[in-house]
Amino acid sequence: MLWAKTLREFLLNLGFRAVGYEGSTYTLQKDGMKLILVTYVDDLQLIYDKSHSKLADYFKEEFGKRFKITNEGDLTWHLGVHYIRDQDNRTTFCTQFRYVEALLE
What we know:
The chain is 33% helix and 32% strand. By secondary structure, the protein is α+β, with helices and mostly antiparallel strands. It has a four-stranded antiparallel sheet with strand order 1-2-3-4, covered by helices on one side.
């Protein structure tokens, strides 16, 4: 609980707004740019349009001043879900094929 409270206070002080009642998704809008931050315990996924990279870089810099972070690059796996991006068509395909394979064994 302490981590969740600390993270929430940090994000709200930075200008993020909580989405819904779960407290796991936040948005930040600034200068016409928008970030979406999805959290699960200490695993965070930052979602943004490429044209909003300046705001994303600002967030990562501020977050890194307060917490130890690693950048895992583009999202490919998260909580057992495999994400496959098609940048040309601007789509993302999500699958749990490994979970299904395990069920069938």
